[in-house]
Amino acid sequence: MNGLMQQRQLLISDLIEHAASNHGDQEIVSSLGDGNIHRYTWSAARGRAKQVANLVQSLGVAVGQRVATLASNTHRHLELYYGVCGTGAVLTTVNPRLFTEQIVYILNHSGSTHVFFDVSLAKLVAEIAPQCPNIKGFIALCEAGQMPDLAVPGLACYESLMAGCSDLYAWPQLDENSASSMCYTSGTTGKPKGVLYSHRSTVLHAMATCMADSFAISARDSILLIVPMFHVNGWGIPHSSAMAGAKLILPGSQLSGENVYSMLRDEKCTVSCGVPTVWLSLLEYAENVDPDQRRRDIVATRVLSGGSAAPRRIIEKFEQYFGVYLCQAWGMTETSPVVTVNVPLSRHDNLTLDERFDLQMLAGRPLPGTEIAIFDDEGNRLPHDGHTTGQLKVRGPWIARAYYNREDDAWDANDWFATGDMATLNADGYLKITDRAKDVIKSGGEWISSLDLESAALSHPAIEEAAVIGLRHSHWQERPLLIAVKRNGMDVTAEAMLEHMRNHVAKWWLPDDVVFVDALPHTATGKLYKLPLRKQFESFRFSTDVENA
Ligand code: AMP
């Protein structure tokens, strides 16, 4: 027997309709560089999104056709988020920081026919255009007077095209399972893989991130979206902020500590989201602001951090400088991305601050709708006891079930998606990522967590950044090597480092050697990139290795 409830489709266009109808005067603030700030409202954004819908239809873009962006977080990118998807076309947000070869691959593999790009990326567009023969139009996200001097097919000015488009448009009632947008994984090895989101998965994800034990986004919030909109739909904030009717601040591409601080202060942001690297820059800037002034300037109550593990010193400083709770979340491109969020339970009310920091080091608990579990190599489920490490798998309505036009064995017959992360889960369901599977160190048959070692190294005040890799050892098979960057003007010896780390990790985990370098390699999304490090240290021999004697 079926229920007698209405079968309304879950559509992205309904999110902006809701925001415009119920929170129409709530602001969207966009930084366009050089101190140039654009302001409008959810109501105006809806009109502009409808203009975009008319624009893409005038370009001949059909339902299901892919339209790409190479753009930072601005109001124009937001309009494309709604206007393109709302017609039934698919928005492919491409990360301009990837290698050119990868960008070309993504544009060709996705079959994108049009690219909307930031003028600051004109040089990149000139480089890729000849290698992307299927792209019929490159549309510069600017006013007529700001057009770049480019010889690429179908070059057009966004604002000129928009001026000719009506803001009247009736969103089609699409099937909620229709594709809405596509993001490619950052591809540290091999080719990037396309993840194709649907209207349904996007709306459900937005709803789950608004929940109280999640990002808790409400109409009272003013959200600074630092996560790039080309990275996993900006963690869904462009959607959840419309769903909640929150004020949204789009910072463009100027993400220095000073700029982030100013935006948090000037727009009275209550919440923000970003990767740990951005938070480090903010904290470095804030270090030199008068402590009372800091507290007056920053009214935020929480910042969301994900993409990689947040070092403890970031968590501590957020509390110390601003009284802000740093809330870790875990997810990945394949998972929309948010799966777990670290919010305390009532039983944590009486924790000391130090114990609360320990709790904040975890990646959080799964959102309703998602399931997470850890497995051994034979596919057996492992206990959630807080110390058994296993392969993290996940399933749920906003988790990918395949890659776009590509075979992959990451899924099993029961829909479990193998994330490639190694993790523990405790009895309360809090997740702790201990490693990427390929980064894990196995010493004498036992696991050593490179993330725990990195976090122990980072807790030393003289350490700016740290990477731990496993290298061959004749007795233990593998042992950890710590490669660290010292903070400007500060010094520490290898021995002092190890002495410090001894207080944070088991003795047998301590790295066998410490090497100091000037800088560490990063991926296009700012994560530590261990592949080149492994190559660089391929022939390194530990001082503890008897083979060296
Ligand atoms: P991406 O698909 O680029 O978003 O990368 C996803 C990967 O980032 C995950 O598989 C994790 O390895 C890592 N990651 C994301 N969030 C966290 C977190 N809170 N702690 C540790 N690693 C994380």
Mind explaining what this structure looks like?
- By secondary structure, this protein is of the alpha/beta class.
- Among the domains are: 68 residues, Luciferase, Domain 3 (Luciferase, domain 3, Roll); 108 residues, ANL, C-terminal domain (GMP Synthetase, Chain A, domain 3), CATH 3.30.300.
- 28% of the residues lie in helices and 23% in strands.
- It is built from 16 helices and 25 strands.
- The protein has a 9-stranded mixed β-sheet with strand order 2-1-11-10-12-13-14-15-16, sandwiched between helices. It has a 7-stranded mixed β-sheet with strand order 7-6-5-3-4-8-9.
- It is globular and about 75 Å long.
- Adenosine monophosphate binds next to strand 14, strand 19 and strand 20.
- The site of adenosine monophosphate has 19 residues, from strand 14, strand 19 and strand 20.
Low-pLDDT runs of 5+ residues are: none
Strand order of the largest sheet: 2-1-11-10-12-13-14-15-16
Structural class: alpha/beta
Under the CATH scheme, which architecture of one domain would be assigned? 2-Layer Sandwich
Number of strands: 25
Largest sheet: 9 strands, mixed
Ligands (ions, cofactors included) = adenosine monophosphate
Number of helices in the DSSP assignment = 16
| Overall shape | globular
What name does the CATH topology of one domain carry? GMP Synthetase, Chain A, domain 3
Which CATH class of one domain applies here? Alpha Beta
Q: Which percent bin holds the helix content?
A: 25-40%
Write out the CATH superfamily name of one domain. ANL, C-terminal domain
